[in-house]
Specification:
The protein has five helices and no strands. It is mostly helical and 117 residues long. The protein folds into three domains: 51 residues, no CATH class; 29 residues; 35 residues, no CATH class.
């Protein structure tokens, strides 16, 4: 059970980012694109498992797995290095954490620019 804690935390953060960062008008498009890409990746994995089903292919499969993780890390770092305007608004890099009431108010206004009713 403890081994799943990291997975659950990731899943919760992922859901929060999807709920806060994606405009409601594009939520359906982004969700279906995510599911489609995950299904394509699963299809590729099954195809590789069918083709390379012998134990002698293990080294190549391990290298392919490592290359896939490295490629995903490169894509992720590129995404972080080139933030969109929405990402800059949601995840500001110049936060000055101030524990006073005024600091909390300014941080709230920075993160939620529209007035709360």
């Amino acid at each position: 059970m403890i081994s799943r804690l990291g997975y659950w935390a990731y899943d919760m953060v992922d859901a929060q980012i999807f709920q806060t960062a994606i405009p409601a008008a594009q939520a359906n498009l982004v969700g279906t694109t995510e599911v489609s890409l995950a299904s394509l990746a699963e299809l590729v994995m099954l195809g590789v498992a069918i083709v390379a089903n012998d134990v002698s292919h293990f080294g190549g499969l391990a290298a392919l797995s490592m290359a896939s993780v490295a490629g995903a890390a490169c894509v992720y770092w590129w995404w972080l290095a080139n933030p969109s305007a929405d990402q800059r608004r949601l995840f500001p890099s110049n936060l000055q954490l101030d524990d006073s009431d005024e600091g909390r108010e300014s941080l709230l206004q920075l993160l939620v620019p529209t007035p709360l009713l």
